[in-house]
Amino acid sequence: MNSSPVWHFVAIAEGYLFLAFGLGCLALSVVALIKCLPKNAQRFEAAFKRTKGFWMAMTGGAVALSFFGMMGGPFGFLFPVIGACMASVYLADVDPEVSG
């Protein structure tokens, strides 16, 4: 049974969309990690936002999840979404509070 060339194009387009989504999630996670690195640890505790080590682990984990999700497999879509959520929490809530 021959498949239509349209479905071949759809499968290729889907692969590129997943790749673009994974790269976007990875970029967001890397930005969160880079923004967390130079912050003073005392500012986290002064703003009542856990510790710097906690947020370094959280944003580093977001980078790892986004990277492993880009490799595909059964969690190829779930891991980047989780990583992007973790990074977004830091960028939206914690980073404005601990920035000077």
Automatic annotation (TrEMBL):
It comes from the Bacteria. InterPro entries: DUF2516. Keywords: Membrane, Transmembrane, Transmembrane helix. The chain crosses the membrane at residues 6-34, 54-71. It holds the Pfam family DUF2516. This is DUF2516 family protein.
